[in-house]
Amino acid sequence: MLSYWLLGLAMMLVIEGLLPFLFPKLWRETFSKMVSLTDEQLRFIGITSMLSGLLLLYLVK
Predict the structure, then answer these.
(1) pLDDT tens readout for residues 8-32
(2) Domain ranges of the chain
(3) Element (H, E) at 40
């Protein structure tokens, strides 16, 4: 079970690193826009991301 968690973490890190590696200027602009969002907007983005991930896990499983 631990190996699946580590595999998931590794995949997340690879995917998270793609944008700053391939498009650093776009990543910087996107990050600066996110800094200006309110806490509620960031929470909405976070819950949407989590629910999308759970839905994807459900569909794949």
Answers:
(1) 899 999 999 999 999 999 999 998 9
(2) 2-60
(3) helix 39-60
Which of these, 12, 4, 6, lies nearest to 50 by C-alpha position? 12
The gap from C-alpha 12 to its chain's centroid, in whole angstroms, comes to 7
Q: Smallest Cα–Cα separation from 56: which of 23, 15, 1, 3?
A: 15
In this predicted structure, the answer to whether residue 1 has a pLDDT above a threshold of 90 is: no
What gap in Å lies between CA 58 and CA 35, rounded to an integer?
Answer: 31
pLDDT of res. 60: 87
Dihedral of CA 14/19/23/28: which sign?
negative
